[in-house]
Amino acid sequence: MAKKNKNVTGTANEAMTERRYMIGPNMNFASAEAYKLLRTNLMFSFSGASANRVIGMTSSFRGEGKSLTTINLAYTIAEAEKKVLLIEGDMRLPTLAKRLGLYAKPGLSNLLVGLNTIGSAIQQFRTTVEGKEITVDVIVSGDIPPNPSELLGSERMMTLLEKLRERYDYVLLDLPPVTAVTDAVIASHMVDGMVVVVRAGHAVRGGLADTMRQLSLADARILGFVFNGAQEAESKYYKKRYYKKDYYSNGYYRSDNG
Prior knowledge:
Mean pLDDT: 81
Helix content: 25-40%
Number of domains: 1
Number of strands: 9
CATH topology: Rossmann fold
Strand order of the largest sheet: 1-4-5-3-6-2-7-8-9
CATH class: Alpha Beta
Distance between the termini: 33 Å
Oligomer: single chain
């Protein structure tokens, strides 16, 4: 049975207040609508009969809003009544358990070394909005292993993703930054596509170019980019132009929350 989170309305909301995270129902209108736009574009990024997709989420550097983006994308997909699983693939610096008020283990690392079953590792982040319950299944990183890259690139990881693909419409894999460690590049061949999160004023052109070069060498399919952390004046401009055609162009999604 999937494990419920300890206290979504208490622990998670306190963490959100402390860190000012705009998670799920706490997003403002512009951010919520932008995530819906991102969701729609992802759904139309794939062709073919199968709708069960595994999507990797990464960035060039830490601090670009990658994990927050992944959480809110998972929440927005769940809003559309799709079955979604969020996996924390960063087994070096885990954050999801604290952000969502979940248990820190068992998690992905425990699954990959055979210490736990899938059912025992899945927890649930639940919220209720206007009487409607929205549920995101989550597998946190678990115990910090000495060999995260080897675990992510293992045959067991591939088998795990294939099993989860059968259970969920979408599996989102939150991976470490490309320029920090090799984990995202190693895992990129196991997913159907990669989304790269870029934060305004944080990413540098050389780092992003190196990220794209590494992913290209791994033959990763790049689905697009998420542009985070727009300045206040710029975000007001985007909000005013939100429903205009050029708000979302060339695979770029702009958000004013980081």
